[in-house]
Amino acid sequence: xxxxxxxxAGGGMARAALTGWECLFANDMDxxxxxxxxxxxxxxxxxxxxxxxxxxxxxPAVAPDLVWASFPCQDLSLAGRGGGLEAGRSGAFWPFWxxxxxxxxxxxxxxxxxxxxxxxxxxxxxxxxxxALCETLTEGGYTVGRWCWMRRPSCRSRDRACSSxxxxxxxxxxx
Length: 175
Known about the structure:
- The chain has 175 residues and is α/β, with parallel strands linked by helices.
- It has one domain (3-174): Vaccinia Virus protein VP39 (Rossmann fold, 3-Layer(aba) Sandwich).
- It has 5 helices and 6 strands.
- The chain has helices spanning 13-17, 31-41, 93-105, 120-123, 128-139, and strands spanning 3-7, 22-28, 46-48, 66-69, 112-118, 172-174.
- Helix 3 links the parallel strand 4 and strand 5.
């Protein structure tokens, strides 16, 4: 069974969608979201802490097949204030990325990192935030593209975009 870690887990909605996968670790910093996660999945996998305080020692001693991160969107959203990846909430990507780099340095590099966020990420800061994110992932040895885990004719691997509007009320992009 493939394994995954879920960061910025909220109520565990990525976990709900990843049927046939084993969650080895989940993280969120918000106590109310943590309560929701525990009601949905139990508390065995959840570490309630700011991602910036985590170290590789806090994570299971394996290289997961997938790391899923639904990092905060408020500073990237078209409805937000436009602070971008340098602002407090959406800037949580950077400590997450430092943790992923440290995981790789410890010989436990995830095979795939899936980043889920709003479509405003693409245009945030005139596209510079999306460019910085893509460059960061590429420099980390990852190929940047769209991952479409819905096996539908409307969502083929050759698609440039895989909009979650096909299965969710709000549109979000998955890199």
